[in-house]
Amino acid sequence: MKLRVFHQLQVAHSALFRAADRRTRQTVGLTTSQFAVLFVLSQSAAQPISEIAKRLSMGKSSLTGLVDRMVERGLVARIASASDGRVTNIHLAPSGATLLARAKEETKHFNAALLAPFSDEEQVVIRRFLTHLVDHADEIINPATTQSGGYDD
Q1: Helix, strand, coil fractions of the chain, as percent rounded to 5
Q2: Which of 5, 78, 149, 150 is 20–30 Å from 113 (CA)?
């Protein structure tokens, strides 16, 4: 039986994030997308939507609506940049930081549960595979036309 990695990744991603979204909504009151925004803001304060969108591989328009809802909940704030009046930065609000801390605990649970069935050696391969995907996704999916991509269905 031939392994269809791309399809399996797509199905696994959807199933995993549906389950994670359901759990984080129930336990923390955040969607996984909201959690991701809070996490990015915790790594580097005061970022424009364009930077957050880039870091999360999201479209600016869909992120804008998400941020609007997060502002309404008091999780983040929009503040004009002091150095460039044309730029509005998104800041992590104290209530967002509190929920982020709780959501990070959920992520620890997710990671432990995901890796539990695998040996330390298998976990090294999993990490290598996922890092490879992150670092080379574009060249894997869009190989140069002069190269043989070597990918078949």
Answers
A1: 65, 10, 25
A2: 5
Residue with tokens 């290598």: 128
Report the DSSP beta bridge partners of residue 78.
90
The pTM of the full predicted model, rounded to 2 decimals, is 0.80
Specify the pairing of strand 88-92 against strand 47-48: antiparallel
Task: Give the distance from CA 39 to its chain's centroid.
Answer: 9
Q: Read off the tokens for 55.
A: 């870091």
Give the tens place of pLDDT for each residue, 49-63. 999 999 998 988 889
Structure tokens at 116: 């539990």
| Interacting residues of 64 by C-beta distance below 8 A, sequence separation 6+ | 49
Q: What is the pLDDT of residues 110-140, one digit of tens each?
A: 999 999 999 999 999 999 999 999 899 889 9
Q: 32-70 burial string, b = 16+ CB within 10 Å, else e?
A: bbbbbbbbbbeeeebbbbeebbebeebeeeebeebbeeb
Q: Are 106 and 24 in contact (CB under 8 A)?
A: yes
| Token pair of 3 as six digits | 């392994």
Count H helices and E strands in the chain, helices first. 6, 3
Rg value, the chain, Cα: 19
Q: Which two tokens stand for residue 83?
A: 């150095």
